[in-house]
Amino acid sequence: MQRAAVGFRVHSGWAAMVAVALEKTEPIVLARRRLQVVRTFSYRFRQPYHTAEKMEPAEAAAFVRSVETEARELAFAGIRSLQKELEQVEVSLCGGALLLAAGRKLPEFQKILASHALIHTADGELFRGSLRHACSRARLDLDPIAERTLFAAASQRLKKREEFLNGKLTALGKALGPPWTQDEKLAALAAWLVLAS
Predict the structure, then answer these.
(1) How many other C-beta atoms lie within 10 A of the C-beta of residue 159?
(2) Which pLDDT tens digits describe the chain residue by residue (197 residues)?
(3) What CATH code is carried by the domain that includes residue 191?
(4) b/e map of 45-77 (b: 16 or more CB within 10 Å)?
(5) 76: alpha, beta or left? (left if phi > 0; alpha if psi -120 to 50)
(6) How far apart are CA 193 and CA 187, in angstroms?
(7) How many domains does one find in the chain?
Protein backbone atom coordinates (compact mmCIF):
# COMPACT_ATOMS: atom_id res chain seq x y z
CA MET A 1 0.00 0.00 0.00
CA GLN A 2 1.14 3.54 -0.74
CA ARG A 3 1.63 5.76 2.31
CA ALA A 4 -0.07 9.13 2.67
CA ALA A 5 -0.52 11.77 5.35
CA VAL A 6 -3.21 14.35 5.96
CA GLY A 7 -2.82 17.96 7.06
CA PHE A 8 -5.44 20.08 8.84
CA ARG A 9 -5.77 23.84 9.16
CA VAL A 10 -8.67 24.72 11.46
CA HIS A 11 -11.12 27.60 11.31
CA SER A 12 -14.33 28.30 13.21
CA GLY A 13 -16.60 25.38 12.41
CA TRP A 14 -14.49 23.83 9.64
CA ALA A 15 -11.02 22.73 8.64
CA ALA A 16 -9.05 22.43 5.44
CA MET A 17 -8.12 18.74 5.09
CA VAL A 18 -5.50 17.76 2.48
CA ALA A 19 -4.13 14.24 1.93
CA VAL A 20 -0.68 14.00 0.34
CA ALA A 21 1.48 11.11 -0.89
CA LEU A 22 4.96 11.06 -2.36
CA GLU A 23 5.90 9.92 -5.85
CA LYS A 24 9.67 9.76 -6.29
CA THR A 25 10.03 12.12 -3.29
CA GLU A 26 7.67 14.67 -4.89
CA PRO A 27 4.36 15.49 -3.15
CA ILE A 28 1.05 14.78 -4.88
CA VAL A 29 -2.37 15.73 -3.54
CA LEU A 30 -4.70 12.75 -3.26
CA ALA A 31 -7.67 14.55 -1.72
CA ARG A 32 -8.65 17.98 -0.46
CA ARG A 33 -11.77 18.75 1.46
CA ARG A 34 -13.46 21.33 3.56
CA LEU A 35 -14.25 19.31 6.68
CA GLN A 36 -17.28 20.91 8.29
CA VAL A 37 -17.41 20.23 12.03
CA VAL A 38 -20.74 21.91 12.84
CA ARG A 39 -24.04 20.78 11.34
CA THR A 40 -25.60 24.24 11.34
CA PHE A 41 -23.02 26.54 9.80
CA SER A 42 -24.03 29.70 11.64
CA TYR A 43 -22.29 32.08 14.03
CA ARG A 44 -24.07 30.47 17.00
CA PHE A 45 -22.33 27.13 16.46
CA ARG A 46 -19.15 28.26 14.71
CA GLN A 47 -18.33 30.55 17.67
CA PRO A 48 -19.59 28.50 20.63
CA TYR A 49 -17.74 30.39 23.36
CA HIS A 50 -18.91 33.71 21.94
CA THR A 51 -22.46 32.34 22.05
CA ALA A 52 -22.00 30.94 25.57
CA GLU A 53 -20.79 34.33 26.82
CA LYS A 54 -24.41 35.56 26.65
CA MET A 55 -25.89 32.54 28.50
CA GLU A 56 -26.34 31.57 32.14
CA PRO A 57 -23.35 29.51 33.40
CA ALA A 58 -25.02 26.05 33.42
CA GLU A 59 -26.65 26.61 30.03
CA ALA A 60 -23.35 27.96 28.63
CA ALA A 61 -21.35 24.90 29.73
CA ALA A 62 -23.97 22.50 28.34
CA PHE A 63 -24.08 24.37 25.04
CA VAL A 64 -20.30 24.32 24.56
CA ARG A 65 -20.20 20.59 25.44
CA SER A 66 -22.90 19.89 22.85
CA VAL A 67 -20.99 21.76 20.12
CA GLU A 68 -17.80 19.91 21.07
CA THR A 69 -19.55 16.52 20.95
CA GLU A 70 -21.01 17.31 17.54
CA ALA A 71 -17.64 18.56 16.26
CA ARG A 72 -15.92 15.36 17.40
CA GLU A 73 -18.51 13.18 15.65
CA LEU A 74 -18.40 15.14 12.40
CA ALA A 75 -14.60 15.24 12.39
CA PHE A 76 -14.42 11.48 12.99
CA ALA A 77 -16.94 10.79 10.21
CA GLY A 78 -14.96 12.97 7.79
CA ILE A 79 -11.63 11.38 8.66
CA ARG A 80 -13.00 7.83 8.44
CA SER A 81 -14.57 8.67 5.08
CA LEU A 82 -11.18 9.84 3.80
CA GLN A 83 -9.44 6.75 5.18
CA LYS A 84 -11.95 4.42 3.47
CA GLU A 85 -11.76 6.32 0.18
CA LEU A 86 -7.97 6.06 0.13
CA GLU A 87 -7.99 2.39 1.17
CA GLN A 88 -10.10 1.63 -1.92
CA VAL A 89 -7.19 2.81 -4.09
CA GLU A 90 -4.64 1.01 -1.88
CA VAL A 91 -3.42 4.07 -0.01
CA SER A 92 -2.98 4.05 3.76
CA LEU A 93 -3.00 7.19 5.90
CA CYS A 94 0.09 6.79 8.07
CA GLY A 95 -0.31 10.00 10.01
CA GLY A 96 -1.51 13.55 10.11
CA ALA A 97 -0.50 17.06 11.07
CA LEU A 98 -2.55 19.66 12.88
CA LEU A 99 -1.48 23.27 12.47
CA LEU A 100 -1.58 25.15 15.75
CA ALA A 101 -2.14 28.80 16.45
CA ALA A 102 0.11 30.56 18.92
CA GLY A 103 -2.60 30.19 21.55
CA ARG A 104 -2.05 30.09 25.27
CA LYS A 105 -3.17 27.49 27.82
CA LEU A 106 -6.79 27.99 28.74
CA PRO A 107 -8.03 28.53 32.32
CA GLU A 108 -11.31 27.25 33.75
CA PHE A 109 -14.56 27.80 31.84
CA GLN A 110 -15.88 30.88 33.67
CA LYS A 111 -12.53 32.68 33.35
CA ILE A 112 -12.60 32.03 29.61
CA LEU A 113 -16.05 33.61 29.33
CA ALA A 114 -14.83 36.65 31.27
CA SER A 115 -12.12 37.46 28.68
CA HIS A 116 -12.84 38.25 25.04
CA ALA A 117 -9.28 37.32 24.02
CA LEU A 118 -9.63 33.92 25.74
CA ILE A 119 -13.02 33.37 24.08
CA HIS A 120 -11.34 33.63 20.66
CA THR A 121 -8.62 31.21 21.74
CA ALA A 122 -11.17 28.78 23.22
CA ASP A 123 -13.29 28.70 20.06
CA GLY A 124 -10.26 27.71 17.99
CA GLU A 125 -9.04 25.21 20.56
CA LEU A 126 -12.45 23.53 20.74
CA PHE A 127 -12.29 22.67 17.03
CA ARG A 128 -8.60 21.71 17.11
CA GLY A 129 -9.33 19.50 20.11
CA SER A 130 -12.18 17.89 18.22
CA LEU A 131 -9.80 16.97 15.41
CA ARG A 132 -7.28 15.57 17.90
CA HIS A 133 -10.01 13.43 19.45
CA ALA A 134 -11.31 12.25 16.07
CA CYS A 135 -7.83 11.31 14.83
CA SER A 136 -7.15 9.36 18.01
CA ARG A 137 -10.44 7.51 17.59
CA ALA A 138 -9.57 6.78 13.94
CA ARG A 139 -6.14 5.47 15.08
CA LEU A 140 -4.36 8.18 13.13
CA ASP A 141 -1.23 9.62 14.76
CA LEU A 142 -1.41 13.39 14.70
CA ASP A 143 1.63 15.67 14.89
CA PRO A 144 1.00 19.17 16.24
CA ILE A 145 2.92 21.79 14.24
CA ALA A 146 3.03 25.46 15.16
CA GLU A 147 1.90 27.29 12.04
CA ARG A 148 4.36 30.15 12.57
CA THR A 149 7.28 27.69 12.37
CA LEU A 150 5.91 25.46 9.59
CA PHE A 151 8.01 26.80 6.71
CA ALA A 152 11.21 26.89 8.77
CA ALA A 153 10.65 23.31 9.98
CA ALA A 154 9.78 22.11 6.46
CA SER A 155 12.79 23.86 4.97
CA GLN A 156 15.10 22.19 7.48
CA ARG A 157 13.58 18.70 7.29
CA LEU A 158 13.04 18.62 3.52
CA LYS A 159 16.35 20.40 2.84
CA LYS A 160 14.61 22.88 0.51
CA ARG A 161 14.56 26.68 0.58
CA GLU A 162 11.31 28.31 1.65
CA GLU A 163 11.00 29.95 -1.79
CA PHE A 164 11.19 26.51 -3.43
CA LEU A 165 8.51 25.15 -1.06
CA ASN A 166 6.22 28.09 -1.83
CA GLY A 167 6.66 27.49 -5.55
CA LYS A 168 6.00 23.76 -5.18
CA LEU A 169 2.81 24.40 -3.21
CA THR A 170 1.58 26.88 -5.81
CA ALA A 171 2.30 24.39 -8.60
CA LEU A 172 0.33 21.67 -6.77
CA GLY A 173 -2.69 23.96 -6.75
CA LYS A 174 -2.40 24.82 -10.45
CA ALA A 175 -2.56 21.14 -11.32
CA LEU A 176 -5.69 20.71 -9.17
CA GLY A 177 -7.53 23.89 -10.03
CA PRO A 178 -9.37 26.15 -7.60
CA PRO A 179 -9.98 26.40 -4.77
CA TRP A 180 -6.35 26.28 -3.65
CA THR A 181 -6.04 28.81 -0.87
CA GLN A 182 -3.49 29.39 1.86
CA ASP A 183 -5.45 26.88 3.96
CA GLU A 184 -4.90 24.06 1.49
CA LYS A 185 -1.28 25.02 0.85
CA LEU A 186 -0.36 24.98 4.54
CA ALA A 187 -2.30 21.77 5.20
CA ALA A 188 -0.51 20.12 2.24
CA LEU A 189 2.90 21.27 3.49
CA ALA A 190 2.15 19.95 6.98
CA ALA A 191 1.18 16.56 5.51
CA TRP A 192 4.33 16.51 3.37
CA LEU A 193 6.35 17.17 6.51
CA VAL A 194 4.77 14.15 8.23
CA LEU A 195 5.66 11.92 5.27
CA ALA A 196 9.25 13.15 5.41
CA SER A 197 9.57 12.24 9.09
Answers:
(1) 9
(2) 899 999 999 999 999 999 999 998 899 999 999 999 999 999 999 999 999 999 999 999 999 999 999 999 999 999 999 999 999 999 999 999 999 987 678 999 999 999 999 999 999 999 999 999 999 999 999 999 999 999 999 999 999 999 999 999 999 998 888 889 999 999 999 999 999 98
(3) 3.30.420.10
(4) bbbbbbbbeeeeeeebeebbeebbebbbbbbbe
(5) alpha
(6) 10
(7) 1
